[in-house]
Amino acid sequence: MTTTRIAKPSILHACIIKQQLTIDDFEKEVLSLRTEITDHSEIASQEHRGGAERNEMLVRMEKELTFLKNELRVLENIDPELEHNQVQLGAVVITDQRIFFISTSVELVEVNGHCLYGISTKAPIFASMRGKKTGDAFEHAGVRYLILDVY
């Protein structure tokens, strides 16, 4: 079976854009929540219960935002010109089921008409495929994957 290689620089670019858009959305939400908390603290006493919940939500969102920015740095440090012959960070893995880009949890991204999944090296599926090469198979969550190409 012949596989079509998608240019890795295009994949990386699409993943970075998607990650940046997610960060932008989170930054807007954090700013909005901060503004809401500040406005409510000036009005004070009426809603003490809601204030604590909003503060907890803000802390969680700020942690998620930090995580997303760290994931963006991982993407920015991947060399799209580097060829891989086994599954590792920066590799594109074409299987008989799906196409994966070993990078960060970008989930589904479309590049040149092909759908692919950005997965983190911390993802359970990565543990199932790590170090595998073209022609190898692996199983994850009851699904068997045959690796058609790694680059």
Radius of gyration from CA coordinates: 20 Å
Q: Spans with pLDDT under 50 lasting ≥5 residues?
A: none
- The assigned structural class equals alpha+beta
Shape: elongated
Summarize the main sheet. 6 strands, mixed
Return the CATH architecture.
Answer: Roll
Helical percentage: 40-55%
Side by side, the strands of the main sheet go 3-4-2-1-6-5
Number of helices in the DSSP assignment = 3
CATH fold annotation: Chitinase A, domain 3
CATH class type: Alpha Beta
What would you say this structure looks like, in words?
This protein has one domain: Roll (Chitinase A, domain 3), CATH 3.10.50. With 151 residues, it is an alpha+beta fold. The model has no long low-confidence stretch (mean pLDDT 91). Helix 1 runs antiparallel to helix 2. It is elongated and about 60 Å long. 19% of the residues are buried. A hairpin with a 2-residue loop joins strand 3 and strand 4.
